[in-house]
Each structure stands twice: as C-alpha cells, then as structure tokens.
C-alpha cells in the first residue's frame, strides 16, 4: 500500500473514532444519522475494499484476492444483518458472522504460507505461537463460566457457538505465526494485525459476560485497535495477490489468469 493511502486511512480512522466518542445513544438518532454512523463505523473495511477494487487489474493470485475481499465484506456485513434479523436472533447471528470472519482469515493465512517450512516451523516460532495462543485461551476462558451459567440452561446451542468462536479465534492467532519467516517484516505485520483484532473480541466477551456491561470502548479505542489490525493484515496480504506494478506488454486477461 502507498504511504498516501495509509495516511488517508489513518486520518479517517482517527476522525471516525472521535465521531463515536461523542455520539448519542442509537435511539436518539434519526434514520439518516444512524445510517451515517453505520457507514463511518465500517469506513476502514470499506476503504480497503475500495483500494482492492481500484487495483483489481493487478491481480496475480485470484484465490488470495477473493479471500481478502470476503474477509473485508464479512466485516461490513456485520452492519447489514441488523436490519434483516429479528432482535432475539441478533446475538447468535453476530457470533456466527464472527466465526465466518475468522474461518476466512484462517483460509487466507493457509493460502499465503511460505513454502519453506524450515523458516516458519522452528522451535522459537512454535514457542511464540504456543505462548500467545495459551494467553488468548486464558483471556477467552475467563468468560466461559459466566457464559455457561447464563446460556447453557436456556440455549445450549448458543453456548457452544460462543465456545466455537473463542476456539477458532485462538486457532487463527496461532496460525498467523506460521505464515511467514520468523521475525521478518511480513511476519510482524500478520501476527500483530491478527492479535489486535482478536484482542477486541476478548474485550467484548469480558465486558458482556464478566463485567456485565456494554463494551463502551468498542467504537473508540477498540475501533482504533481493530482498524490498525485490519490495515496490517490487508497490507501484508496485498503483496501476495497483486503485482507491484502492472506488467508491461502483458494483457489484463493474462495477468488475471496467473
């Protein structure tokens, strides 16, 4: 990604975070204002989608490009189904959408992993992955007893959906360590990006199940952290699915077929 786009992305994220800092309660907003807030909330994903669409003629690996589009689209879709699903089903649908996001992200990591296994499967990298995954499992695990007590009796299926979401998120964090050469620039981007978006999920679960409070910071500090994570993952993945420059003398159809 160009420095200009990253600077623009950062400015948009900061401004929208400030917007949500002083946003009234949803019931106090008109339809137009609520729609604007939904649009601004997903502006990081929409910006990345726009960037990919603008550079679609540079595609060299369609599969990775498609997974990246799906990952961003599912993030945006989280604002859409609120108007399609009954309120009593919003929580499970939200968790299922979150599972789908991490499944696509996991597939994206598998598609990008290096072919030189010695560079990623070594003692040091495995230690990093295991320790970080254990910490995430502990972070998610703090919420499990409360979720069990709250939901198992009335809806065992929903409890197992929550448990599946925690496990797939932790597995995705673990997989991010085994995509690139240990401690390379791309390795840091992918690992840091995945950890940042997963930390936001831990915060949400802790707020709901442990502290029994609304995750107030999800649209401010959480949004900032999540947006940085999105940018790092997209910036790393673009190098795997787009040419650096349009190839001279090669037709667009040939480029897309590579």
UniProtKB/TrEMBL annotation:
This is Uncharacterized protein. Keywords: Membrane, Transmembrane, Transmembrane helix. Coiled coil: none annotated. The chain crosses the membrane at residues 5-23, 35-54, 61-83, 95-114, 126-145, 157-178, 190-210, 216-234. The keyword Transmembrane helix applies.
